[in-house]
Amino acid sequence: MNIGKYRTHVVLAMTVLWVAITLCGWFGKWYVGLFLSVLLMLLHMMLGAAQKGILSKKLLMYPFLTWGVVWSVGFYMAKMNSDAFMNIPPSYTILGFHPSFAWIVLCYWIGGVLTLTLGLVKYKDLWLSDTDWDAFITTVKHLNEGGK
Amino acid sequence: MTGNVKWLILAFSVGMIVISFLIGWGAKKKASDAQSFFGGTALFGPLTVSLSTVAAVASAFAVVGVPGLIYSFGNTMNLWMLSSCAFAMAYFTIGKRIRAMAEVAPIASLGDIADLRYGYHRGIKALLSMVLFIGAIAYLASQISACSALFGHLLGWDPYVAGFIIFGILTVYTALSGEVGGVLTQAFQGLVMVVAGIIMIIAFFGITGGFGNVVEIVSNAGDVSAVVEGQEIIKKMTPNSMNAWGALPGSVAMAWMLIPIIGTMGQPQVLTRMYALKNPKDMPNLGLFAGLGHFIVGFFALTMGYAALYLVGKGLISPLAVADNAIFAVADYVGVYAQLFVYAAILAASMSTASMFLTLSANIVSRDLPSAFGVKLEGKKQMNTSRIVTAIIGVLSIIFALSSGEAVAILGTFGWGTLMSATFPTFIIGLNWKGASSEGVFAGLLTAFVGNIASLLMNNSGFKWPGGLPWYVNVITLSIVVMVTVSLFTKSHKDANLDPRVDAVIEL
C-alpha cells in the first residue's frame, strides 16, 4: 500500500481528527471520540511504519487493523455493559471484573499488547528490514562524505 | 507502624540509594564524550533501555496518586494505567526515525534532532527547550516534594534532611555520570518497581480473594462512614465506579485513554531512550520488554486502588481522609513486607523520574538553550559545564520543591500534556511528514508555549474548560493545527528544501 504518495492527506486527516476529538470532548460526544481516537492512532502508526512510503499489507492486516477492530469491539462492549448496569450492581462478572470493565481489560489492555506489542516483534522485518537499514546507513555515509 | 518497621524501611531505602549511587559512580567512565554523557546514545541493550523507560515514565504519581484516584473515582484512571501497548505504538510510529537520526550526525539531545530536521532553526530549538524545561522542572519538583515529605514524615525527619539526602545523592551521581548513569540507575529502579509490583499483586489476591469480591463489595456497600480522629469520614461507594469509565465525566475517560496511549510517543523519557538503544533492530524487543514491565506496574497500581476500596467497603479499615493514602493503608493492612516494598517502589519511582528530568533540564540549560542563542562549548568543557549546571539545578530544585508548596502544586499542572504539546509538532509529525516546514513547527511550538502558560493562568483563575476536557488536550490540538496550517503555506526545510539525509530518514 503506497501511503507515501498521500502523506500530506494523511497528516491533514490526523489534524481534522485531533480537532474532531477535542470537539467531541467539549460537547459530550466522548463515546464517538473514543472511536475517532482509534482512527487517529491507526493513521499515526501507518505513516510511521511505512518503508519508502510503502506500508506492508501484512502489517496493515495484523497488527494494525486487527488492533483497531479489537479496541473498537472492546469500547462497544464496555459501553453496552456500562449502560446495562448503570447505577445497579452487575448481575455477573467476567474474570471477576465488572462486565463493562472486563472488556477494557481483555481488549484494550491485553488485546493491545497481543496485537501491537507482539505484532512489532513478529513482523519486525516489515517495519524495518536489514536490507533497508543497511541501505540507509550507506546512503547517509555517502551524503556525509559530500555525495549527492 | 512500629519503630522496627521504620528502621527496616530506612535500611531498605538506604540500600537502594547506595546501590543507585554505586551504579552511577561506576557509569561515569562510560560518559567519555558529549554523545554518551548527554544522550547515552547507542550504548544500551533492549532490557536496560526498557526498564529505564518504564521507570522514568512511571513517576511517584503512578504508585501513590493512581491508587488514590482509583479509590476516589473507580476505573477512569485505569484507562491511563492499562496503556501497556503504547510503547509498541510509539516505536511503530516514530522509533526507527528517531534512532536513524543518531546515524545522520552526532545526537545527544532532542534539540540536536530538531536542529538537523529544521536546518538549525534557533527559534525552534529555543522554544522546544523552554516548553520541555517547564515540563521537566514540574516533574522534578513534584517528585522531590512528594518523596521528601513522605520519607520525612515516616522517619520523623525534617523534609529538608530527607530531601537533601535522597535527591542530593541523586544529584551527585547524575552530575558525574550524565545520561549514561541515568539510564543504568533507572533500569535498576525499574527492576525494583517491577519486583515490588509482583509482590503487591500477589498480596492483593491474598487479602481480597480476587476481583469478583471487590466488585461485589464496592457495588453493594453504599455509604461507608467512620469517625477518624474526631472527624466523620464518609466514602460513597457506587457500582458505576466499577464500570469501564469510572465515576468521572465521559470526556475525562476519553482523554485518559487517548493521551497516555498516543502521548507515550511524545514523552522525552521515551524519545531519548530510542536513540540510547545500541542496535535499532532490537527496538521490537524493547517494545516487548517495556510493554511487559508497564503491564506489571499498571496492574500493581490497579490492584492497590481496588484493595483499598475492598478494605474500606468491607469495614476492615476506616474510610480514608486523604485518597492518596490508599496504597499506604493497603500496605499497613498487609504487614511489614508490603510496607517495605511499597516504600521501595515509591522511592524507585521518584528517583528514576527525578534523575531523568534532572538530566533533561540540565542539558537544556547547559547545552540546548545556549546553542539556540549561538553559544557553543566543545567536548569536555561542555560536559563539565553541564555537571555544574546539574548540581545547581539539583540543589535549587530541592530548595524550591520544599519551600514553595503552593508554587510546586501550581507547576504540577504541567507535565505529560505539556511535553506532548512540544514534541508532537516537532518530532511525531515532523519526522513522518516531509511537508512540515520550519515556519510551521516554530508557529506550533509558539502556540504550545503560549497555550501552556495561558492555561496555567486560566486554571488558577477558576476557568472551566468545555466538557470538563483536560486543558492540555486543547493546547495539543491547537499546536498541531497551527503547525500543519502554517506548514501548508510556507516552504523552509520541507519537501525539495529538505536536507537529503533527513529525507532518507523519513523514507526509511
Compact overview of the structure:
By secondary structure, chain A is an all-alpha fold. Chain A has helices at residues 7-26, 30-49, 57-84, 99-122, 124-127, 130-144. Chain B has one domain: Sodium/glucose cotransporter, CATH 1.20.1730.
Q: What is the SS-derived class of chain B?
A: mainly alpha
SSE succession of chain A:
HHHHHH
Q: What shape does the CA trace of chain B take? A: globular
Q: The biggest beta sheet of chain B, please?
A: 2 strands, antiparallel
Fraction in helix of chain A: over 70%
Number of strands of chain A: 0
User: What strand line-up does the widest sheet of chain B have?
Assistant: 1-2
* Structure annotation, total helices of chain A: 6
Q: What is the third-level CATH name, the topology of chain B?
A: Sodium/glucose cotransporter
Protein architecture, described:
With 148 residues, chain A is an all-alpha fold. Chain A has 2 domains: 1-55; 56-148. Chain A has 6 helices and no strands. Chain A starts with 6 loop residues before the first helix and ends with a helix. Chain B has a single domain, classed as Sodium/glucose cotransporter (Up-down Bundle). Chain B has 21 helices and 2 strands. Chain B has helices at residues 3-27, 34-39, 46-57, 60-73, 76-81, 86-104, 110-117, 122-155, 159-208, 211-220, 250-263, 268-276, 283-313, 326-334, 336-372, 379-403, 405-411, 416-429, 438-460, 471-488, 500-507, and strands at 223-228, 231-236. In chain B, α1 (3-27) runs parallel beside α15 (336-372) and α10 (211-220) crosses α13. The longest helix of chain B is centred in the middle third of the chain and has 50 residues, at 159-208. Chain B is globular and about 70 Å long. At the A-B interface, α1, α2, α3, α4 and α6 of A face α6, α10, α11, α13 and α20 of B.
